[in-house]
Amino acid sequence: MGHVLPGSRENYFSRTDPREVRENYLKLDFSREGRTGHYGELKEKVGTLEMERGVLENVIRDQQKRIGELRNDLDKYNPQYLETEALLSEIRELRQELNTIKKEIQ
Fold this sequence. Notes:
Elements: H1 18-27, H2 36-105
């Protein structure tokens, strides 16, 4: 009818820039495999992480072994330590008695 109404053309025509539509279309991947490069990168990262996990598991195993050895050493030397502490305590008591005797004599 020749009338120009604001917004009347929007239903029939898009205001989207054709270059923008073309760029977005080129980004799409319609293949069955998807983004094969991306899949390869992820597979490589998973392989690297699995290798790192193996290394860390070995480190943990070695540390647990060392902790066990230290516990055995501690159990082996702990009675000697307790005996030494008992002897030192007895020496302190004897010194106190000796000091008391010296004071009584003076």
